Amino acid sequence: MLLQLLILAVGVAILAVGADLFVKGASSVAERFGISQFVIGLVIVGFGTSTPELAVNIDAALSGSTDIAIGNVVGSNIANIGIILGFAALIAPLAVQLRMVRVELPIVIGVSFLLWGLASKGQLVRWEGLMMLGGFAAFMLFLLKTSKDEPAAVQEEFAEENPKTNRGMVWTIGLIVLGLAGLMGGANLCVGAAVKLAQMWGMSELMIGLTIVAVGTSLPELASSVAAAYRGNADIAIGNVLGSNIYNILFILGITSVITPLPTTAPTLMWLDIPVMIAFALVLVPMMLMGLKITRWNGALLMLGYAAYVGYMLHISG
User: Which residue has the higher pLDDT, 186 or 231?
Assistant: First the structure.
């Protein structure tokens, strides 16, 4: 068991390093095409923190561990709000832009309900995956189109978080190749260790995906959001979480279900796990609207809610 835990930890570490290298390489390529630092930070870096989930899901889909794939996305979305946003708010209260309440948060809630509806049939099939990918493409176009309307202070925050790299092309390509290798290798280690741990502990692959794998693949979001909160860049701390939750459902589950249909018949998925994911998104509405700030008390409440969810899962499983 200790060996599998060590393999899982090593896999998560390789995933995190691979994601960081890939984001740096992709950002450097974007710079060469004259894309602004704000758009790079908003789109490429924001998406980059979700690449560990993508890598794990592709590996899980190809190896037939579909419960880990869907558990990873649902669990990551719960952890993003419960742990990451909660912890970031404990470090420093997070000021909320009204646009987040009007646009990004409703999209998070909408795609969460969409997943619940699609999953209620017992399976996510390929045409639904293609539909989700279409929704993701529309979301990305919307982001790019409206990015110029963001307040100057917000644009400066994102540019500050993503300084110019000025790297040569060979260096850039090397970063991308090493990043992709790290993502694929780390994902393979994570999925293999997770399956063996589930067998050893008598837990379902869904539960392993919802907890250990989900938290592990969310570490890049944790590092990014906590660092942003510490520096007072609340827009990045909140934007990373909301953007990641949208990416996870529309893009990552979209690609995964195109690769292979995903059964959604696991015992707790429809009545506990997806509803909890939706509840965490919904509870952000009053939190954000009350003074346009996520306070330390809100952060503590989010983390307690996550602990209660995991505790209840462990209770009913054994």
Answer: 186
Q: Is the pTM above the cut of 0.85? A: yes
Of the candidates 93, 136, 94, 98, the one whose C-alpha atom is nearest the C-alpha of residue 114 is: 136
Distance of CA 164 to the CA centre of its chain: 25
Cα separation values, 204 from 72, 95, 101, 218, 280, Å: 13, 39, 36, 20, 23
Contact in structure between 48 and 170 (CB atoms under 8 Å): no
* Among candidate residues 118, 133, 132, 124, the one with its CA nearest the CA of residue 260: 124
**Domain of 165, in residue numbers:** 2-317
**Sign of the four-CA dihedral 138, 141, 143, 145:** negative
Query: What is the distance of C-alpha 21 from the center of its chain?
Result: 17
Q: What pLDDT digit, counting tens, does each position of 226-241 carry?
A: 877 887 777 778 888 8
Alpha-carbon gap, residue 64 to 72, rounded angstroms: 14
- C-alpha to C-alpha distances, 303 to 8, 87, 88, nearest whole angstrom: 24, 7, 10
Amino acid letter, 157: E
Which residues, 6+ apart, have CB-to-CB distance to 150 below 8 Å? 38, 99
How many domains would you assign to the chain?
1
DSSP state, residue 122: T
pLDDT, residue 161, reads 55
Say whether 268 sits in a helix, a strand or coil.
coil
- Residue whose entry in the numeric block shows the structure tokens 């990045």: 236
